[in-house]
Specification:
single chain; mainly beta; 5 helices
Length: 252
């Protein structure tokens, strides 16, 4: 669901139901830009099941998600009951968590940005570091052709020297016929694979075709994962003006 968390969750996650027309003159940057714009939408609302599996335990949460552009997101846990009402608000680079059991709103300090978000394999930093790929990365095609029965592009993305991103490189696989994402590999600055995100179960939700399932696997713990399955998704609606506020974080 940013991919970082917002792209994955809010957001994450988002593609048109009709084919995007590409011309012979389209460059790798043009293609990624079209995919990136499709992924975002102006605003969105969704409900998803998030399964977190580690060596020691497996947990499932139902979450509700509102977004507006890349700057604003509100994510609230609906289930299980003991966590219901726990919420995260993102506005630009600031993040707050609301804990209903103690009725406290906590602003996340910079020292906690690499901490786990809601117990998942995502971090608070993932939620903050949303960016447009074409603005922050140099993009090249490294493979074009048939793979596993589908025509695909494989892109290599390397960050510009001054780009405010955490990844040293990204490999992004896109299905040609409908610009659906297939897989993304994320590498650190030393070139070591850190995590892989795969997409599956493409279906029409709202007015768009989306990969309803997204699975993140950390490279150093391949037996673990966080999987997000959207059960509801809608786009480009008008959110009330107070949706992304500290009051809404508590009371929405």
């Amino acid at each position: 669901m940013k991919i970082c968390l917002t792209r994955c969750l809010v957001f994450f996650s988002i593609f048109l139901s009709h084919f995007t027309i590409l011309s012979a003159e389209d460059s790798p940057r043009d293609i990624i830009d079209k995919v990136d714009r499709i992924m975002r939408g102006d605003s969105s609302y969704g409900v998803a099941e998030m399964v977190i599996s580690t060596k020691r335990w497996e947990r499932s949460k139902t979450i509700e998600i509102w977004s507006e552009g890349t700057e604003k997101a509100l994510i609230r846990i609906l289930k299980p009951r003991k966590e219901a009402g726990v919420a995260t608000l993102k506005i630009d680079t600031d993040i707050w968590n609301y804990l209903p059991k103690i009725s406290r709103t906590i602003r996340i300090p910079s020292s906690m940005m690499m901490a786990s978000w809601m117990g998942s394999h995502f971090t608070n930093d993932d939620l903050v570091k949303e960016s447009r790929l074409v603005d922050d990365y140099t993009i090249k095609v490294t493979f074009e052709g048939l793979r596993e029965g589908a025509e695909i592009w494989e892109f290599s993305l390397t960050p510009h020297p001054d780009a405010p991103v955490v990844w040293g490189a990204i490999e992004f696989v896109i299905r040609k016929r409908d610009l659906m994402p297939v897989k993304a590999n994320y590498y650190d600055e030393k070139g070591s694979l850190k995590r892989t995100v795969t997409y599956s179960e493409y279906k029409k939700m709202g007015d768009r075709l989306v990969p309803a399932v997204m699975k993140l696997v950390p490279a150093d713990k391949p037996e673990e994962f966080t999987q997000i399955t959207y059960t509801k998704l809608a786009f480009n609606m008008k959110h009330p003006s107070d949706t992304f506020s500290l009051a809404s974080l508590r009371d929405k």
